[in-house]
From TrEMBL:
This is HNH endonuclease. Keywords: Endonuclease, Hydrolase, Nuclease. GO terms for molecular function: endonuclease activity. Residues 134-186 form the HNH nuclease domain. It comes from Flavobacterium piscisymbiosum.
Amino acid sequence: MREKFDKWIQVNKKSISKSEKYSKTITTISNHFKKSLERNIDLYKIIKSEEILKLKEEYFSYTEFLSKNKRGNRMYSRSLDLYIEFLEDEGILLEIEKIENDPNLRELEKEAIILSRIGQGKYRNDLIKIWKGCSLSGYKDVRFLIASHIKPWKVSNNDEKVDKFNGLLLLPTYDKLFDLGFITFDKSGFIKISKELEDIEKIGINEKMKIKLKEGNLKYLEFHYNNIFKKTVI
């Protein structure tokens, strides 16, 4: 897995000149878990990004490693973020392969489901027609907007995967916050912000923000609130 991660950095992160620094850091963090925390953890044997995210939170809950990260110009946190992104990409490929090999789906159905996963095709066009811009800010240039599933694609059934009401159209920062559960929306469309999120004004959100929900969004937002959102709110 380390070699695949290293190659992924080389292909997808052209601005990084020495990919091996990051792939080696993942090994270093694994050794910290083993030696300092007496946890037999090898991050390269973990293939789910959600598990790495939880371990990242645990790792930086220790002052020793938080301090190391600050002294090292955030090398540890940057390496973990890259590894999480790599695993997410790997997961997408496996999900797509599963859809492609499903004998119960017609080719057009497969295409629609796969395109919905990568935020393209009819699914994205439907969201553009519904929202006509960023669902939260109203920003109109759709070139910069991401078609984001409310109930995550990987836990949705095939109908939910392509349902236009299971989606928001968001600027990248909002998309990432929503995807990771740092923000969600109540039944009236008002934003809920996790207390785990710091310096919210610096990323352009506040507790007065609101989206204009459609009736069809509600069941998916209920799932997001119960299963994705980091519950404590401001």
